[in-house]
Amino acid sequence: MAKPTKHATTICIALSILLVIGILLGFWQKNVFYILGFLLPAVIYQVYRTEGKSTKWASWVMLIVIILEFVLVIFKINFNLAEFLGTEGGYIAGYYVAFGDLKTIFPAIIAILSIILFVRTRGKYTKWLAVIIFTGALSITYKINPEGFKDLVGIITKKALNQF
To answer: For residues 97 and 83, what is the distance between their CA atoms, to the nearest angstrom?
Structure first.
């Protein structure tokens, strides 16, 4: 059953503005916590709005990943996945992700999941939310690791060129 859309436009506008504020505060205060905090409501609303089997799991995984990212940032936990697994990278949902610190990998996973949501969903509000979340994930990636940001943009560009 389709979710009500009576206030969806207002909510999506508010979430967009909230993310912009979070990004500005995050870069001004030099703290990714603001971006994460202001992105979380969009992820929660995305979980609420999605209905399909693949989009629902993508939304829930995204919520779990953003919560784990909060834990890593709050407790200043550094965990190098490349060293732990003994490999430099791997494929996540068909996209190659270079392994390193989990704080860099989690936003990349969120970005990839938001692309999946954008492509697989039919609703304009869930697409809008996917764009908001993707923008937040890119901002987090850039704030934490500018090199990882370049890699992520490269993946996105390659995927976009293959689509067209």
So the answer is: 15
